[in-house]
Amino acid sequence: MLIMFVRAFILYFLVVVVMRMMGKRQIAQMQPFELVITLLIAELAATPMENASIPLLNGVIPILTLLSVQVIVSYLSIKSETISNIICGKPSILISKGVVDQSELRRLRINMNDLLEQLRLKDYPNISDVEYCIMETNGDISVIPKTGKAQVSLEDLNISKQQEQLPVTLILDGQLLSKNLMNAGFNEDWLEQQLRKHKIDKIDEVFFAFLTSSKEFHLQKKQIS
Amino acid sequence: MKVVIITIVILALFLGGAFYFAEYININSGKMLNNIDRLDQAVLAEDWESAQTQLQEIERDWIKILKVYEVILEHYDLDEINKTLVKIEKYIEVEEKNLTLGEISQLKFVVETIKEREVFSISNLF
């Protein structure tokens, strides 16, 4: 049993390292081949984990091989348009200038109901509001609405506003993130001043504190359980 | 780019390791099969002292290569070889010719199977 425990430990860390090296993508945004590799890695890790008669290398080698191949293929996809088209495919235009491309729908084996469903999910219940609809390589659709149906922006209303910055986390679960504080242009004295305004004496009483995009300080105290 | 280089190095190491271990298994299985043949001859001739010596040599070599085989091969075949060697040892001790020869054939078969399974061939690929 101790053997299984240690093997599970080793394979867990291996899978974590491999998934980190493969890069950051949510499941829904993965290319089909990336999803397949993720599922394969899970299966390959499970088999030697539960069966001590199978050498650990029987799981480690295929996992690392898949990682290597996936990283190399991804790298080549970036460098070569041809390889990218072969591996990932090309986006497909389903609606062009307001007209549904029926041959493209047939080629992709999508029926009209599927298309209408996807448009509704993208908040376009009326197909007549759509100028272009593109099916991306990961299966998701992108919609470019007709000019009159697009969302209004500040530019349309001639309103000028200062560019917003990224919000910055300063304290997380009682721990001060000094680097973030410094990058935001403040120091600990300033932070202590802010905490005193909220009647807080110590940093470790704070659950979460951050600077908004417009440099306003907000915090939430830790709940006393 | 760093990750790409690391993965290329990993692939190169695996390929190199795979060729090395394939050759290692080939050479050691070949040596073991030769020793098994000599054991077979000794048992056929009912030369039990020589058979005992030959078996001990096989067991000594087996213990050395087992340390490597356990890391790279599935344990079912290795356990089979261990079981067969124990049986052969007992049968030689009681000078039981027929049963010894039967176990020697089984031992030879398992060692040959291990050797053939690790060869890079179309039948092993598919």
From TrEMBL, chain A:
Localization per record: Cell membrane
Keyword tags: Cell membrane, Membrane, Transmembrane, Transmembrane helix
Principal localisation: membrane
Residue span, YetF C-terminal domain: 79-209
Sequence intervals crossing the membrane: 6-23, 60-78
Transmembrane helix listed as a keyword: yes
Protein name per its UniProtKB record: Uncharacterized membrane protein YcaP (DUF421 family)
Family membership noted in the UniProt record: Belongs to the UPF0702 family.
Membrane topology annotation: Multi-pass membrane protein
Record-linked Pfam families: DUF421
Keyword DNA-binding: no
UniProtKB/TrEMBL annotation, chain B:
InterPro entries attached to this UniProt entry: DUF4363 (IPR025373)
Protein name from the UniProt record: DUF4363 family protein
UniProt xrefs under Pfam families: DUF4363
